[in-house]
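Technical appendix A lists one of the benchmark inputs used to test multi-chain prediction within the project. The record comprises two sequence entries:
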Amino acid sequence: MINFTINGQNVTALKGETILQAARKAGFYIPTMCYLEKTTPCASCRLCVVETDKTDGLILSCQTPPTEGLAVTIESDRLKAERTNIMRLYDVNHPLECGVCDKSGACDLQNKTLEFGVSAQHFSAKDQHRKIEHWGLINYDPSLCILCEKCVHVCNEIIGDDAIELQFGGYKSSVIPKNSETLDCTFCGECIAVCPVGALVSSQFQYSANAWELTKIPATCAHCSAGCSLMYEVRHTSNSLGAKEKIYRVTNDFEHTTLCGAGRFGFDFAIEGSKDEAEFAKVLEAIKNADGLRFSSLITNEEAMILQLLKEKLGLKLYNEEARTYQNFMNAFSSISGKSGFGGSIDALRQSDGIIVIGGRVSSDNPVLRYAMTTAARHNGAKVVYMHPMEDDLLQNVVTQFVKYEVGTEEGVVAMLAKTLLSGSDLSDENQRYFDNLDEGYLCAESNVGDEELARIAKTFVRTKRKTLVIGSDVLTHKRAANIARLCAMIETYSEFSVVVVPTSINTVGVSLICDLDVDNGGGNVIGYNAAGDYTMGSLSDTMFKLPALNQQEGTFVSLNYQVLPTNVAVSFEGYTLNEIASSLGVVAENTIDYTAKLPKEKGFNGMEFDELGNFFSTLGEDNRGYLLENCDVEANGVLDEIDDLPEFNGTVVYRCNPINQFNSYTAQAQQLEKEAVLSGSAQFAAAAKISDGDKIRLEFPQSTQERIFKLDSTLKGTIALVPTYDVGFGGLNEQYRFEKVKIMRVGSES
Amino acid sequence: MHHEEVFTDRNVNESSAYYYVDIENYPTTGWDKFKQVVKRTFSGELFVGLWVVMREMIKFDIHTVQYPMEKLPIGPRYRAVHKLLRLWESGYERCIGCGLCEKICISDCIRMDTRIDENSRKEVTEYSINLGRCIFCGYCAEVCPELAIVHGQRYENASEQRAHFVIKDDMLTPLDMLKAGQQAEYPGFGAIIPGSDESVKKTPLAY
């Protein structure tokens, strides 16, 4: 704690805090243009200058920590003059196009220009022609750019794309794509979010609505398990009477959260419905006659609760293989750790200085985890070990050690990793014997993970303090998932590592907590709720009975952080809801959200009403969204199994992995997202499978076949190809082990 | 078009153009009131008026305005149904779609839709005003930075229902009218104040 004064008032700062942070916490206002809480200070605007008693010149409060007893002045005539001059310089030749600019009304430059009363241009510079750049989803107008560098910092430090940089040239400076003619990035759109002026804008949104006309609806992103906070911004669609509202854009609280491209651009998945009583009678009849109900995890907790109550009332079986595998994994995990959930979180990951990721392609499965890892690497110099059969090009700037293992050998790899990380820990004799008796020679040979690689990991993590182990979703569906879970739990329980398990869908965790799921063997008369079935209902385009999509419902999700997050209705829905169906079947409630308070307390829900849940960040970044589930104590009676023989995957192997910004059937409908559903593989894969770029191929899976185009991807290496799942059926990713042996044939050439 | 205000001094005193009208005091007692009635009834003033009508009738000098075929000119600042103007030189629409009129409208009767056009400019695709709600306050014309929306002279608003709309096509000056020089500028709320040229500051430019 450092005690100092601001304008004569006593203020305390924590160690590592800057003057600006301490001042803001204490409620003082220091103007800034380029400051962004989540990045290192850009220090380009110099508006945050302050005077102190120990320096002659002005100092930048955004990057200077206070010293004990320092007297800081944040308001004086000199500072006012300095800041006003900065604003005058910002306004030199700034195009007077506020009338059409998208940012008008929400523009930092507008606000500060008015705040400092700059009503005329005091300086001159020769104006020049600056071309507007069109970068796909993003447009960049250099003449509006004030060169604050927020976008560059975010792209580099938080996202990790490192796709833009500043081209220095005095008054000619501008933001340009890095090492490329045009912008080549994952299109997260975070640069649009942080831009304080209208220089970087969404090309789709540009000029379609003004900031003040849009109603902001705080919600939770429905695409991956991270459950990011976002704001749906809605407005009427046309001037006609009775015109419906639609979502114009998605924004986020960029000071404190980060959103990926799917969240930002994949918002147009709302559907239309109508109240048709004949259809309603049909769905009731279908449910009464059904043996089971299959559903996806694209569902709110309240609806999951309704399904569970329907199960109890009607004796339906509930099928959701994806959530069931997660449930089994966590049950096995808890049986060792003695806690109902794992101990890690995305925030903990962001603050880590040592990270191991195993069994998942996080950059496409869960972009926010990738962003957290990037932040950890850039801000804490975190060591990142990535263990997977396939290298990930997007993580190459972050990963310090890549460990490749053979497909299917996760159990052996985790066992050896556990042994490495737990050496020297206080284990029981039984567990110690278990690790001593591991047949490392066999495991190393089969998994292709060398002793020296494990030794390097051991060496790396001796020096780190805050460690996180990220378990990808490959292992959830592994045949030996239970034992892998127990081994992971050993690591969390007996070492300093905290574990994060990455489920696939937005509410996999919620469903696994609320529903009592049955084993799906495909038989019987099954209702599908956003899933395959004899009678289907839901919000996806090919369902028979329409129910609202996730941006048309209110309810809660449980994110991978075990946080219960509220979401709200962005677009109205005229048809029936699941609650109305259930009410007609005897599970009666007036509103779906009546179930929020009734979510099972024994699983950690705290019984709060939906309307009591917050959904915002405070100005200082405190997370006021929903609440955290209680991590309950459970019986720890699990025993580690012997490692099974490691399976071999020979021949042509594909990996179910969606392209960046694609997750499920919702994102598949999004008009702005790229929808190239191809099999992508390396040149090595192409040679082995005897196919070439652009070939139309048929993939024969054990259960099904698909026809796709093959695309050569120069960023991939090795002999495994990526096959998307978001465009198939209901887009389920994690119902079976993600690697699979397939037969590949060129269509038209086989005979 | 130049308007000079006659009544520059609105203070009522001897030197201004205002003067007091000499009005007799009202009768207070019953008798006085009776006397006034008798005086007015038998003074024959009625016939004075009738004679004027008769005289003009005989002379065929009729001043009746033949509404609706004929309309009286109304004051230039009168705020009737809106018009959207075009630029004189190019014929482009003046409206840039900034949305300020929509924002400022206190009866919330203006709605517009914009998009980005082929030339990367903001284009107004729809513009409507619900005249049933409009209170003709003139804020929209006042806030308009481009003198694009103005109040015209068309004051007839009779309609079959309360809500009735004017849309962009109704309000925008047709191109042939513009070419014929028939677009009228609006001197009312929001128009350039006479003499504003003098108050414009030049941007200091070093070249």
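The beta strands of chain B are 82-84, 110-116, 122-130, 149-151, 165-167. Chain B has six helices and five strands. Comparable benchmark entries are summarised in Table A2.
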